[in-house]
Amino acid sequence: MTTEIEMQYHDLIKSFLADVNTNCASHLHKDRVLIPIIASITQGITTALADQVETCLAAGIEPEILLEVVYQLTPVAGTLKVQQALPAIQAVLTKHQFRPSPSATNADENYGASIQADLYGTEIKNLLKDLPDEAGDFVPQALTNHFFNDFYNRSRLDVRDRERYELLALITLNVDFQIKAHARGSLRAGNSESELVWATIQLLPYIGFPLVINSVQVIHQAVSQSK
Asked: Where does the Carboxymuconolactone decarboxylase-like domain start and stop, copy by copy (predicted)?
């Protein structure tokens, strides 16, 4: 049951939500309904998740794509947040009588590693090379195996989409170094500045103005540096 305080708050913010959604709708397509799910799971907040999944399905998002976006959050937000979200998602999909099928995988087991090399080179390996007791070897190798190979080898999302969704999760987490790196990676993967900026603006109701303003500046600077 919605409380009086919740109703008052909804009345306060409804013009804000409508303004963001209306303006983003003219620049974004499927991302507009997927981004709230990315924000919810990355923040570990599942109260609105069932409604967000219903909105995705109503907008014509294939359940397999929705699930792939959710799974892709694992190496960014962690297993606990993703696992916490799965029962609410499963309940909605079960109501719609959807049963997930396994995703096809790339024949090349190192496809993800090759994408990492193309987009990021040896950036993380160089960054962590001085860590003690072989930690500087393990973390970059785990990143390659379990960020890129485990997920990028799955065929339901292309690299361009994966990079964009990861960037949005990193923005939600407010991790400055990674936002800068993945802004560059997202651009190299074929995303335009407009796509990344408007996708970040769609995060406004969920993460607030400070993170969005900082992040769109980072994206704009990454474009300028790439010229």
From this structure: 140-219
